[in-house]
Amino acid sequence: MLMLATTFAMARARLLPVRPVLSARNGKLKKGPVADAAGAVTGYQCPDKEIQIVKCTKAEADVVIAANHYSKKPTKNSFLSLLVHYRGEVHGALQLGYGIRPKIKGEFAPEEMREFDRMWLSDDMPKFSESIVLSMLHKYLQIAHPEIKVLISYSDTSVGNNGTIYRAANYILIDDIKADFYILPSGERVHPVSMWHRHKTRAWKTMQELYPGIRKANGRQLKFAYYFDRKRASKIKPHVLRATNA
Question: How confident is the model at residue 228 (pLDDT cuts 50, 70, 90)?
């Protein structure tokens, strides 16, 4: 597994005492908050699977994401970072952000919406870990950030992500757009807005001259929303993909 030893050291130091959790009900996995010595909730846990998510610094999560996530890029416009622990070791990271243009959110008030930008979990984690981690993230946010009413996340079909884990976690497909990314020979994925800031142009000929071997992503970005108000969610009509976009 591609990981820096310093990340493990930092992360182990952040493992915190945990509050007691309720017994499993109706066969569901036990889950409960992680708290520090002062009682502040700093994460969430699933003892049955030995998984915890714990708030960390952006720098700690950046190391994990840069080394392992397919984009090779941590979230820049960061709001929250968490490390994923499995059996006491770091096996993943989560990052939430404000989005590229946080004040332009259509139907969403900026202060009530955040983007779930990055999730990476190692292959050593147990089956269904993605769904477990998403469930814990939602529960943690309800406690630590009750002002958040909706999470937006994207699945990139150009790398084979069709939103399966989001659908399983009650996210609703609300839109789809063409995947507008440049893919560098290193594998780094760069948004055209970032290229504009770097070079004051996004002309394709210029990009090819500056980055020999650059290519454009071929796929769709599926836009999903998770509404913490389940009554509101029940009133949202899911977006329907056209046959050519599926």
Answer: very high
Order of strands, sheet of 172-178, starting from the edge strand that comes earlier in the sequence: 32-35, 41-46, 51-55, 78-86, 89-97, 113-121, 150-156, 220-227, 172-178
The secondary element (H helix, E strand) that includes residue 210 is helix 204-210
Topology of 1-17+39-148 in CATH?
Answer: Aminopeptidase (3.40.630)
Place 181 in a pLDDT band, splitting at 50, 70 and 90: confident
- CB neighbours (10 Å) of residue 59? 11
Percent over 90 (pLDDT), the chain: 56
Structural domain spans, the chain? 1-17+39-148
Kindly state the tokens that stand for 97: 């952000």
Q: Of 123, 119, 36, 135, whose CA–CA distance to 81 is shortest?
A: 119
